[in-house]
Amino acid sequence: MKIRYKVSLVAAGVLLVTTSLLSLVQVRQIRTILRHQVEASISESSNAVARQIENWLNGKLRLMDLASQAIDRQYSVQTTQRIIDSPTLKDEFKLVFGALESDGKPIKNTAAWNPKPDYDGRIRPWYATGKASSQAVLTEPYKDSTTGEILISAVARISDAGQLLGVFGGDIRLTTVADAINTLDFGGAGYAFLLSKSGNIISHPNAELNGKPFSQLFAGNVLPLDSQLQEVSSDGKSLLVSFIPLSDLKGMDWYIGVVLDQDIVMAAAHTLSWRAVIGTGLGVLLSLLVLGLLVRRLLRPLDQLKDSLADINRGEGDLTRQLPVVGHDEIALVAGEFNQFLQNLKALIGDVKNSSRHVRESTAATSCEADQAANRVQVQLQELDQLATAMTEMASTAEDVARNAQTAAEAAIAANEETAGGVALVSRSTGAIKRLAEEMDATGHAINELSTLSQSIGSIVAVITSIADQTNLLALNAAIEAARAGESGRGFAVVADEVRSLASRTQQSTQEIREMIDQLQTGVRHAQVRMQQSRDTASKTAGDADAANDTLERIRAAIYRINDMNLQIAAAAEEQSVTTEEINRNTTNIRDISIEVSGNADKQVRQCSAMVDHVGQQDELLSRFRI
């Protein structure tokens, strides 16, 4: 919805609410004023009728008081009858009646009233009312038993010098009261009726309602007898009801009830309400028309601003366009601020383009480096495979060394046993030199075999030395590759260092074995020479046998040492085999990690490629803006 329509609708709504509230307040004030006027009119008219009724009835009471006073001054039966028969009382009352305290017999002024023979006036309500009052009073309305007409009676005391002798009274027809009340029609808006405090209707325009409860007039609703207007519904009509008391009527609490048709009374307010509604509608329509023309004229610069923005939008990102700034109103301020926004946007787009170019270059470099890293990881995987193969071969060689060392140990043990036998033979008898010489020949052969075995051990030691050198070289290469791998190769560098340390210890042990074997070979050569000399001189001296015994002891000791060396070589080879297995497992783990690193490197390469593509798209979008 356009702004002009929104402004017009909002203004129309505000105007409608405002005028409606003003009209509502005005109508309510008028209704209140009319209500007060009606109350004042009812009070004035009702009070006037009430005073008229009060004066008329009070006149009747004063007449009865005068008659009572005349009887009291000159009491006699004849005087009482004469006063009751007076023309004045006959004219003012429908019937004058009475009864004496002595016998209750009726007193009357007309032959038309013929009470029953057993009539006793002393038990009648009117007699008790007159007897209880020192002045003339009115009785409650009652229905005439003969005519059915509603009557009231003014009663007074019959006395002689103040002593009660009886009561007399006069019946009053209420036609005069009804005529007075019926004059109140309130301009055709309602009617009035007379009722007692007990709620019984005394006089109503509809004579059939006389003597009935006034609640029948209002669908059974019993209203409080209040002079304020009360709203009540009856027979589908909204009524205004008020009750005006007859305050100056002696001894009686009577009210004039006023019933008004609210629609008739408030007709002027209803007419004014409709006029207000029509006036409000016409005012809103006229205001909408004027406001629409005014808003159209005021928002004309905004339409120009919209057209300029549309031109910029159709200009495919041309930020060099400027909106026209005309005048000093809010729309001109908006155009100026928008032009400033375009200037700021131009600078921002330029900075974003430069940043995008730098990002593209950095991303390309990163992608290249990631590609190189992936290649290096592949090379590392190949070298790890070679290292694993070498470690497997090394483990196999270590097992061979252990087996050869075990064989050498067994041979040394056998030589030791043979040497022990030779020592035993030399010890038993120096006389058996010939046999000893023969045994020396056998021993010479054994020594030759020992020499041969010693040379074999030297070969084995050379192989172990070669393996240790190769292990040291592989460990050095592994440390170099671990240093190249950086943080991910730190664990592998530790393992390579341990391998290099083990290879170093193996070289040292091998060197010691070589020295021992050299000593053994030297001893063997010496033994061969000594054995030859012993064979030559065995027959000459027994002392030579002792020397041979000593030589055999030294050979035995050397064999012990050779046996120990062989056991050490076997243990070292076993340890080397275990270490080689550990290195092999570590190499496998390193290879798995390297494979994962290679996968991450490939993923990084793909991400860098995607980033390069996104940066290219961003450059393409930014190139649409012309700055």
UniProtKB/TrEMBL annotation:
InterPro entries: dCache_1, HAMP_dom, MCPsignal_dom, Sensor-like_sf. Gene3D superfamilies: Methyl-accepting chemotaxis protein (1.10.287.950), PAS domain (3.30.450.20). GO terms for biological process: chemotaxis; signal transduction. Signal peptide: none annotated. SUPFAM superfamilies: Methyl-accepting chemotaxis protein (MCP) signaling domain, Sensory domain-like. One of its GO terms (cellular component) is plasma membrane. PROSITE patterns: CHEMOTAXIS_TRANSDUC_2, HAMP. Keywords: Cell membrane, Chemotaxis, Membrane, Methylation, Transducer, Transmembrane, Transmembrane helix. The keyword Transmembrane applies. It is a multi-pass membrane protein. It is found in: Cell membrane. Belongs to the methyl-accepting chemotaxis (MCP) protein family. This is Methyl-accepting chemotaxis sensory transducer with Cache sensor. It comes from Pseudomonas moorei. The lineage of its organism: Bacteria, Pseudomonadati, Pseudomonadota, Gammaproteobacteria, Pseudomonadales.
